[in-house]
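Can anyone check this?
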Amino acid sequence: MGNQPNKDLNYLDYSQDAIEGNTVQTTFRLQEISKSDKALKLKEEGKLKEALSLIDDALKDDSKNFENWNVKGLILNGLSDFEQSVKCFDNALRLNDSDFIRKNKANALYNFAKITFFPDMDYEKAMGLIDEALECLPDDEDASEYWFLKAEIFESLGQPIETRIYYLKAEGEFEKADEISTQREFLKDNEDVLITVSGTNFFKGLEPFEKGVIVNLVKQPDNEHDSDAIGVFLADEQIGYVANSPYTLIDGVKSASEIKFIEDNQKAEVLFIFLERYVILKLID
């Protein structure tokens, strides 16, 4: 069922019984087809309500049969009754904890998460459902669609770091996703004075900010837009500003206003570029 091969609904079984001499007698028997197989066949034909009625009859006969619960879960998933579908797969898993049922449950949870995300726009509930789906999905199954949906939910929740991580996972860029996670932990736990650079698009972009490059920070009190402005210079050429706006700051870094105690020509070292956008610098002696 689901990922499990289906039996033909009409087939013959036979046995061969030796009798005296070299003669062999072959006996053919028409095998009885289970209600769950018939219900699955109806589902595949698009006759979902008939299939549901038949599988309910099968469950009345035998509620301890995991195949019956698995097939009912598949039918309810097809009917978009995802919540009840998941409950059926849970019943099946209690009787037979196998990967093909786990995959079916994960798929139902994914579908449930999709409609909860949109059009319902219940982002927190959708996140819980997709996390449960990912936990249930067998390790050898492709999770890219699940990660993509998780990224979309994070995007709607206004969480750009997690959004980027899960879009990268959906694209198979696991090393880049891990790098961002490592950088985020560094920003959270680091005790150095860190800053980030804004306005690079008005100068030379991100090109000058290679890891290990040393830059000078120069206070610009006469700046007409921000009296706390601090320019970022490489040699004698300005290449940006120390970020000072809520729109250009991230957690773990100081703003220009917070480091206005520095002397002119304070030096800073380029550590890395975060999220392909934020240049992270560390103040140095």
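Reply from J.R.: I decoded it. The radius of gyration is 31 Å.
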